[in-house]
Amino acid sequence: MYIIKVKGKAKIPDYIQIRDENFVLVAYFRADRPMKNMEKFGLEGKEEELEALINALPFGKLQKLEL
What we know:
It is a single chain. The mean pLDDT is about 85. The protein is globular and about 35 Å long. By secondary structure, the chain is an alpha+beta fold. The protein has one helix spanning about 45-55, and strands at about 1-5, 15-20, 25-30, 65. About 15% of the residues lie in helices and about 25% in strands. A 4-stranded antiparallel sheet has the order 3-2-1-4, with no helix packed on it.
């Protein structure tokens, strides 16, 4: 899976996109709110790691999601 942080403008907040190996969007959520249904993507128990990754992630750079 891949992750990208999208910069919001004006009243639109920053968002996180998680995409699968074919770059199909599988999750889309606000950067300042936790992702729901993490077990659906095999990320349960990795909330703290994901939060740290999101905080360090530069805007607009697609990265492989490895936790």
